[in-house]
Every structure is written in C-alpha cells, then in structure tokens.
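Record type: ASSEMBLY
Status: queued
Input:
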Amino acid sequence: MRLLALEIKRVLKTKRTWILIVASVLLAVFMAYIPITFVTVQKTDESGNYVEITGKDAINYYKSNMVQGVVKPEILRDAVRRYQEVYKTYDSVYGDNIPSEVYYEKLSAYQPYIRGIKEALADRNNGMSPVIADISIDKVGEYYDLLESRLASVIDMEQTGHPAAKEVALSKFAKVQRPYEYYYGAPSDSMEYETFFIFLITILCAVIVAPIFSTEYQTGADDIIRCTKNGKRKLAIIKVASACLIVGMLYLLCGITWIVVTNSLFGWEGTKTSIQLSFSVTTLLPYNVGQLQWANLLGGFLLFLSAICFTLLLSSLAKSNVSALALALLFVLLPFLVYTVMPGQLGDWLQTLLPGAGIGLGNSLLYAMTNFDFLHLGSASFWNTDVMLMLALVKIPLFIMFTIVVYDRKRIR
Amino acid sequence: MKLEVENITKKYKDKTAVDNVSITFTPGVWGLLGANGAGKTTLMRMIAGIMEPTEGKILYDGVPIETLQGEYRRIFGYLPQEFGFYPEFNVQDYLEYMAALKGMPKREAKRKIDELLEQVSLSEVRKKKIVKLSGGMKRRVGIAQALLNDPEVLILDEPTSGLDPGERVRFRNLLSEFAKDRIVVISTHIVSDVEYIANQNAIMKDGKIIENDTTEQLVRLVDGKIWECKIPSSDLVKWERALKLINLRNEADGTTSIRYLSDQAETPDSVSAVPRLEDLYLWLFPQEGEVRL
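Status: finished
Output:
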C-alpha cells in the first residue's frame, strides 16, 4: 500500500497531470452547460413585442407548460388532435410555416409525443411515417400495442436475413416498461455532449497514463528500479493500479459532475422520462433518462478502462513518451476512424474488437444503446452494446496482464 | 558470500561486447578497470540482471540470479553509468520511493535516508527537485539510493564522474566504511578512484578480463618499468616524443620532473620508482595515457 501511495503521489506531482485533471473537470462542467444555451422559446409578450427567451428561463417555461406524467392514450390522442387542427389551418406543423405563438400555445406542450406516434404508426414495409393529417385518432389508442410490430419491421429492414437479431431485439424490448412517462428535463441532445465528453476525457487520460512506463525507459530510471526487490512485477501491478485509480476516479468525478450539473440545470424530474420518448419509441433498453445517463457513464467507464489499459500496455512497450502517446492517441481514435471509413459488418466487428471500442461519436456506446445495430456470427446475432461491454470485460484483464508481463520480463537483449 | 560470473558472453549483431568472461567476486572492494568500450558497463548490466547475456550465467552463492529473482534484488544495490530518475521527484521523495521499492519498512527507510543524506552532504537540498541539482549532486543522490538497503552486493558504474576532488575523497571514505563483509564492484576508468580502496582489481580489454588480482600483485607486472627523473624544461617536447610519459611536474628551478614507462632507464639520472595501479593501467592501455600537469 505504501508503494501504491507513493506511486500515486508521483503521478499526481507532475504538472502535466494537474493541468489535465483541471481541464477534465472544467470540460465536464462546460459540456453539461452547453445544451442549456440551445433551449429557446420565441413568443410575444403582453405588449405584443416579439421576445426570445433562452437558457434557464426557457427551461422554466417548458417545465410549467409541457404535458407531463404517465403517457396514457388520451394524451396521445390530444396531441394528434392539436397537431391536426393546426395542420388544417396552416397546412403545416413546422416552426417556420406557422406563427410561433401558435406553436408555443398549441403544439409545444405535446411535441415530445408526436414524433413517437408517427414512428409507431410508420409503414411496416418501407418505414415511412404518416403525415399528421393522415393519422387516425382511433389508431393512436393502440399506440403501445403497435410497438412490437414496429420494432420487428425496423429489425427486418435493418438486419435483413438475420432472424436471430429480431428475436434478440423483441426479447429485450419485452422488458421495457409501458406506459411510458414524460417529464421535462435534459434533452436527448445533451447526452451526445456526455458522449463527446467521454471521448475527450479518454484522450486526456490517455495523455496522463501514456508515460507511466515509457518515462522510465526514456529517462533510464528503470535501470535502477529493475534492480530493486519490488521493481519488477510488483511495481508493474502498482503502476497499473495507480494509473487506473487516478484516471478512473477522475472519470467518475467528471462524469458525476456532468450528470449533477446537467440535471440541476434542466431539472431532476426529467430523469424519470422513458428513453423511448427521447430516442426511438422502440429503444431496447428498459431505462428512463436518468438510468441511461448512468448506463452511458458506467458502461462508458468499462470502455474507457479498456482504452486506458491498452494505453498502459503501449507505454510498457514504447521506448519514449512521444511514441507511447502517439500510439495511444492513434488507438483511441482508431474505432472512430474505422466507423467513418469502413461501413458494414467488417467495420462493425473491427470497431468493437479494437481497444478503444465505443469511444467516439457515431461509434459511441450511447449510439449503440439507442440503436438497432447487431453483429452477426453465422446464424447468431448479438446486439452491439452487449458485445462492446462483454469484450471490454475481457480486454481489461487481458491488457493488464500483458502490461505486467511485458514490464516484468523486459530485459535488454 | 560470492558472486560468480561464469563464461558470460554478450554479443550484438556485429560486435562482441563481453567475451567469455569468468570471474568470482568475493567480499571486499573490487575495481573493474578498463578503457571506454572495454565492456565494463555491459558486464555490470548483466550482473545487475537488466541485460540478458548471450551465453553464460551469473550465480550468487551458487544459485543463478534468474532463480533468485527478488531475493537477489533485495540484497543488491546498483548505480548505473547514466543515473536516470523521475523528473518530478525531489531528493527526499525519490529516496522514499526507492526505499519502498527496495522493500524497506517506512521507519527504517526514514532513518536510513536521513543518515545517507548526511553522509553524502545532501541534507540541505533534500526538498529540491533532482532535475535542478548539479551533476555532482545528482551523482551523490544516485550513490545514496544504491546504499539505501545496505546491499550485500553493490555495483557502481563510474560512480565518481561529475564529482569534484573533495567529493571523491568523501565517496572513497564512505565506501571504505561500507564495504566490510560486502561485495563492492566499482567500474571506472579513473584509476585513482580505486587505487587506495580496492583490494582486488579486474582489468577489462576488448570484452575480456585480461588481469585479475590484488593491487599489490598487479602492480608487480610493471616492476622495474617505472622511472622518474628531472629534465630541463626546454627539452620536454623532445622527451614527450621519445618516452611514454605517465606524469610530469614543472619545478621552480627550470626543470621538469617526469615519470615514465620503459623497460630500462632512458636517462642517466633516472631512478626506478615504486609502481602504482595507474602505471599498470597506462602500460596496459597506452592509448589512454594522459600526462597530467
């Protein structure tokens, strides 16, 4: 324990570490704050002047004006009726084509429901959503009964030729609690900032841990250290443990900061909203928004640790800090690059197998959790999220073991 | 207690750095002498276990050091030629870290660190970052870390490089006290560092140990080959060309006292001198000879 404490103290004593720690915390607060700047309400005041309310005032406006609670069919029917009324008058329901006061007085309170209704009633063959005018009020009453068939058609379209994928998806969706609930809170966009923040903090933490072993080789300090009683395997274990502890605590501190700041700004009530009202109505996870924020943070923690442990392995192999850092950044970014340039199953598998799987934007864990991407192996199909997390559980001990062995056996040949 | 080096060879692609070396180190101070590139550092790194020999083995009390692993490292102290350290450490933090690596209990480590800092005259700078210390001070930090665990086997590679003359004397005294019942190997090309404290000397040349004996025995190799005389200072250039000068000193009377290597007296007034280790070294490595004023 003494050696662990001394190693932690050593890492924390470097100026670079402190700069990166402070930058990470500030980044968490910044990433939580940005979405609030996008919340706006345009309306006319009592004197008839056009005003735009933004930030916290706009949030308060929505909190007091939205239709919230358990989403019963009656609420859904009201939503459709209101939208159809506006459509009849203005031949549109979209912001630029209707007066803003009409939108805010008649539609905005029901806006979270209408997208889901259109999705649930979408054509089962081509996935096209109906236009507002064509939605049958009676059919809306069957909203919850339609979701399974909607999910089945989505999977049929996206995973053609893989019936196992549909089975997996339907069995997962069966656990989703219905009726859904809606409370105004952090919008789904804000979670993309959580994902972006996870991506950035992984890069910052990779910079912290990349020199853990390589700095010894670079400075020649390892010549002396390796001659000490605890200077080989035990030190390797201590170094891995201290690095994971430091960046792990930093990740959790910053992640929790992001959740606390976001929900404090938008309101904690909103965390009770079913994620099916923020993302697709057939999203497979039985979570509310708050649970999804935590799942993204903690699932992301596994993927983050996997990337960090691989960075430590690179550090134990590299001869200099610069090469360790360059390789670490390359491998953190590689899944994102593969996602960008290599679509299809091969790219999907590769992204998932790489050490930085799930760290990125379009290839993120959040994206996987809220989408219907499957990996196929023969006739079996696996939901991307499950594979990512399971592989992370395998990669972490594997990378740690390799790091310890590499450092322990390192001798000049 | 003995450290046996058995038929150790270290080959690189196109060079044999250490060539079938066998030597048994017993308690006492050992000087490992040789010119730069003779293979001393390579041999020391293999003894330290940080470099893999191409052939041969190293045994401590009859057991290969690879088998002993941590047990060997527990009784081992090492100062490499290039003293590497973490740049973020101050002297105290570094020594505490090294003490923990050496498995020393906290209380004992604190006592030993205080004692060593005093001995190597670094108490005043214990809170200073190592990176900001002078070369000599850094070297003394390196010496202190090597001595922390009271090692039974202490390997010092060029320990006095960067030390001023006073520091060298203090280092020799420190080592003389320390060396009782321990194996201390000092690799150096500065003969005066080991001349008065080494009981045994091994001399390396081109990767091989060419001589290995006590200082008294070794210097006998140049018995009758060391001469001293006085020459007119104006003739110095001529004699420098003609003789293998070991040392010279300008005298006040316009003459120069010279010490030279030769099978016989080269001037009528030359007298035979008592040989020293340095004389032997220059006899073995004539290209290393440097006349010091």
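Annotation: The two ends of chain B are 43 Å apart (CA to CA).
Annotation: Chain B touches chain A through 36 residues (CB under 8 Å).
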